[in-house]
Amino acid sequence: MRDGRRNRFFLAACVLLAACLGGCGKSGDVDSGSGKDWTLNALLKKLSGRSPSQSVAMAFDPNDADRRREGIVALSKKDWGLKEPYLKGYAAILRTDEDPLVRAAAVRALGKAADPNYVGDVSRALFDRVTFVRQDAAGALDKLIGETAIEPLRDRAAGDADQDVRAYCARALRHYRRDDVVQTLAKCLVDKAFSVRHEAHASLVALAGRDLGYDPQAWGNLALKGLGPAKAPEKRKSWWDRLWRGFKKPPPKPTTQPG
Fold it and tell me: How many domains does the chain have?
C-alpha cells in the first residue's frame, strides 16, 4: 500500500479496535461465587470462537489478506457488526485494500448493512478492476438504495464487460422509477446474454406495472408519468426453489361424481 493509504487504513483500524475494547470488556462482571466471566466479550467468544476485538484485529491484519477477509466476514455476521463504527472500517477497507477478496468481503458487508450513507462507496466499487468485486457491488446495490447509485448502475448495466455485473445492475435499477432508467433497461433487452435481458424485463415490469414484452421500442416510447404505481419488487427465489418447482407434480384434476 502507498503511505497515505496505509495511514488511513491503520487509523480506521485503531478507531474500531478502541471502540471494541471500550465497549466489550468491562471489568466487574465476573461472578465471584462461581468464578465465571460473564462479560459480553467472554460470552461472544464462547459463541463465535473469537472476541470482537480479535475479529477486528483480523480484519485489519496488514500482513495476511486471508485473515482480513475472515475478520470482515465474522464481524458482518453479527448485528452489531453491521453498525458504526464497523461500517466506516469496511468502507475504508473497500477503498484502500489491495486484495480483491478482501474488497469483495467489505462490499458485501456494506450491502448487508444497507446504510444509505455508503451508497457512494459501493457505487464506486462498480468500477473495480476485478470482476467479482464489481459483481458483489452490483448485488449489494439491490439492497443499498440511494439516488447516487443510479448513474453508475445505468453505466454498468449497459456497458460492463461481465454479463453477471450487467444483470445485477439491471435488477438493482428496479428501485428507481425514472424515465432515463426505463431507457437504459430498454436497451438491455437486446443484450446478448439472456440473464441481462431477463432482469431488465423484470425491472421494467416492476417499474411500469405492466408487461410490454421484450420489444425495446415498445418500452422506449413509454413514459412513466401518468401510469399507476410500480409493482412491489418480487423476492428472488433461490435456485433450489426453482429446481424443486420443476419436480413438483401438478395437482390432480377434480373428477365429477356420476349422477
Answer: 1
